[in-house]
Design goal:
single chain; YefM-like fold; 2 domains; 3 helices; elongated
C-alpha cells in the first residue's frame, strides 16, 4: 500500500508513522507543497518480498546469448531499493 503525506503532517506523526511502515511494509511518499521530495519505505524482511525483489532484478538485467549474468553483484543495490 502506498500513500502521500505532506511534510508538515509527517513531522507531527513521525514516531507512529515509522512503526506503521516497519510493521505493515507500507510506502509513504512525502510531499512539500504538492511536490514529491522523499519516499519512506519499509524493510523487505519476508521471504516473499525478497524473492519478488530478486525476480524483479533478474528481469531488469540484460540478456546476452551464451553469457551468464552474475546477479550477486547487483543484489545488494537492488534489495535495498523498493520497487512499486
Amino acid at each position: 500500500m502506498s500513500r502521500q503525506m505532506a511534510i508538515s503532517e509527517v513531522r507531527r506523526v513521525l514516531p507512529s508513522l515509522l512503526k506503521e511502515v516497519q510493521r505493515e511494509g507500507t510506502t509513504v511518499e512525502i510531499t512539500n507543497r504538492g511536490v514529491s521530495v522523499a519516499r519512506l519505505v519499509g524493510p523487505l524482511t519476508d521471504a516473499v518480498g525478497t524473492a519478488e525483489a530478486l525476480l524483479s532484478l533478474r528481469r531488469t538485467l540484460r540478456r546476452r546469448r551464451g553469457q551468464r549474468v552474475d546477479v550477486s553483484t547487483h543484489k545488494n543495490e537492488h534489495l535495498t531499493r523498493r520497487h512499486d
